[in-house]
Design a protein that fits this description.
Order of helices and strands: HHHHHHHEEHHHHHHEEE
GO molecular function, one term: DNA binding
Pfam families: HTH_31 (PF13560), MLTR_LBD (PF17765)
Strand content: 5-15%
Strand order of the largest sheet: 2-1-5-4-3
Distance between the termini: 60 Å
Domain HTH cro/C1-type: 25-97
CATH class of the largest domain: Alpha Beta
Number of helices: 13
Helix content: 40-55%
CATH architecture of the largest domain: 2-Layer Sandwich
Number of domains: 2
């Protein structure tokens, strides 16, 4: 049975609205596809290029009226499931699919399931001279270089079993002693994590991490309940290293295009 959104009949959006941009995007990609591209017979003579709306609706398991209203830029409520069906029907690339979900303001369920880290992204961590590490969605370190292992006592050093940055910041005495102005930095980290994790706050690993820290750390609980939200802007980072003494770096965080769910963090000479 086709998916149905049962949207109310409302006027089309203005040409500059997000809904109109979404509609133009869907229409352009529908018109680029030939019936043979999706396994359909050419049928009778076509007056316009590409697939018909009815054909896209059939391929996606959606209502033809629903597809029409989307292309007209009407503010129809979109589910992630319906968007995924449209993306598959239109044969969208990974970048095109991500753009579609961004326009619709929805989180792509496929992105959460795809945890494969491209080898070039892993290799980039070790190609950086200063401390560098790669974080996943829950800020668990997937890779780090020797400089990061030497610096981050209580987190990335060989003696530590804790690889999640957020947990280490609140439960590892070694990392807490290492970080300059720990109360401020720890609270700021929680505010940054809140902003970063909003798109996957309902995922089980994220919920488990937050619930566990709420029970383990009063400092984390207070910071989380404060509802503070901050961008991960980088800037100066100070450390009190037991062997190397006082250290200063400039932090730079990048999101690899090949793995948009991850963060590559570098500490540059301050």
């Amino acid at each position: 049975m086709p998916l149905s959104a049962d949207p109310a009949v409302v006027p089309s959006a203005s040409p500059s609205s997000r809904e109109s941009v979404l509609g133009a995007f869907l229409r352009a990609h529908r018109e680029r596809l030939a019936p043979a591209d999706v396994g359909l017979a050419p049928g009778r003579r076509r007056r316009t290029p590409g697939l018909r709306r009815e054909e896209v609706a059939q391929l996606a398991g959606l209502s033809a009226t629903w597809v029409t209203w989307l292309e007209q830029g009407r503010p129809v409520s979109l589910s992630a499931r319906a968007l995924a069906s449209l993306a598959a029907a239109l044969r969208l690339s990974r970048a095109e699919r991500a753009y579609l979900f961004e326009l619709a303001g929805r989180r792509d369920p496929q992105q959460a399931a795809d945890e494969t880290v491209p080898p070039v992204v892993l290799a980039s961590v070790h190609a950086i001279g200063g401390p560098a590490y790669l974080l996943d969605r829950q800020w668990t370190a997937l890779a780090w270089n020797d400089a990061a292992a030497d610096l981050f006592i209580g987190w990335l050093d060989a003696a530590s079993a804790e690889r999640n940055l957020l947990r280490a910041m609140f439960v590892s005495p070694g990392l807490m002693a290492l970080v300059e102005d720990w109360p401020h930095r720890a609270a700021r980290l929680v505010a940054e994590f809140r902003a970063h994790s909003i798109r996957h706050a309902d995922e089980a690993p994220t919920r488990t991490l937050i619930e566990g820290l709420m029970a383990e750390s009063a400092a984390f609980r207070d910071a989380w309940l404060s509802q503070d939200v901050e961008d991960r802007e980088g800037g100066r980072r100070g450390f009190h290293h037991p062997q190397q003494g006082a250290l200063q770096f400039e932090q730079l965080t990048l999101v690899p295009a090949a793995a948009p769910g991850l963060m590559l963090v570098m500490l540059l000479p301050g």
